[in-house]
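Researcher: Re-running this chain for the archive, since the previous output was lost when a drive failed. Same request as before.
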Amino acid sequence: MQTIPNLYFSSQKNTFYYLLALLFLFSSRLAAQSDTIFFNSKWKATVKDSAVYYRLKPVKIKTKKAIGRKIEYVDSLYVIKDYYIKNNTLQFEGYSKDIDGNYNAGKAKWYNEDGTLSSSRDFQKPAPGTFRVPSPPITYLNYSIADKSLLTLGTEFCLNCQTSKKLFLGLGYGVTNSYNGQYYGLPDLHLSYNVSILFAKIGTTHKNSYLLGGLTLMNFIDLGFGYSLPYDKSKAPAFEGFTMSLNLRFTRNKKAYSQPIGY
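Model: Regenerated structure tokens:
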């Protein structure tokens, strides 16, 4: 038979465990609520009582595992899942570069309240009927030498800076050294395709066209060799023959430059 003190301490012990269990359940419920974000019909953050949608706390996942391919400078993405609060069915699922879901990546899907698919989109591609504005302009400085030398300064646009294969569209103006005591200006229009450590470039002025290929150092320095063909050899400047070229790019747009091998 237990003594009165033993019964007392046993009762106190049971009460302690009961309170501990209640505290655990309460804290778990608070944690679950803090991991849920509620939105009204206009997707503004609100309290649960006036919410139409809710989102579970986004978790991070490796980019390649999430969308099956790498994105430059983005190591991980957030998994975004939104639900209708009325019946807890999925309203949206996709991936985002930020925890707030403002910068989507990869494929995303929207659902109706009955669970049927409403629409979908791949955010790595431009939306149908829209025009993607090129990346900020790049200043380029080019020195070429064939039968004479040519110094050109101009602007380039990176047409697909989201991938490792860069396509640069350039427009500039060059000046040749002396032809019989005269200097000539040559407007330049070109396309340069840069992949890894190689590039290929085709361009034209009103006097000649040219084709170059060679090595690139992170797209900052292009060192090329090719051929320049004048449209009219009888008129100066002919600027013809085998051509060597050194091209420099200057920009704050880091995506225009490639990463070193093994980065």
